[in-house]
Design brief:
Layout lengths: L10 H4 L5 E7 L11 E6 L5 E5 L4 E4 L5 E6 L2 E5 L4 E8 L4 E7 L2 H24 L2 E7 L5 H14 L14
Antiparallel strand pairs: 1-2, 1-9, 2-3, 3-4, 4-5, 5-6, 6-7, 7-8
Helix pairs in contact: 2-3
Length: 170
Amino acid sequence: MARVETDKEDLMVEATALVVRAEFSRETHSGDDTAWRIVTVGFRKDDSFSVYFEQDPFYQFDADGLLRRSFEGGLLFRTQATTLAQLRRDKTGEQTTLSRMDLSVDALEDFRGRMIHHLEDLQKGFADQTLTMLRCVSDDRDMQSRATCFLETVLAHGAAFLAPAIRGGQ
């Protein structure tokens, strides 16, 4: 995660760890229950996958489709294998304090529901062909199919959706 928490000017330029990435747009209507218009998806060299709905939320999965990290509602989340740690940076003029709170079972299920909603919404956009690819950094121009396959893997995990705990500052 970046130490400076400002919106990225251009994820397609700045997300260089995603060696294969693409940006898609969709038309939004006033009745939409999700607000995103731009989504950026990408894969790292190790085949892990990230998806950014605008700037917030984003979800980062390991190569097996298990959630490692997320940013949602201005908060960082990191897997602890059985729950998510919610990380909050509190800044004063002199220092920054990182506070951690592990999500309760109910809060984890609420988080999972919101994540599933976003991912299914993206999956539906791919299936309905209502997304337009704006840019792609890859030799593989079929990012939509690759992302769709990965989303199927992620969504197949059900309640066991968390990757093993992240050790140290990875």
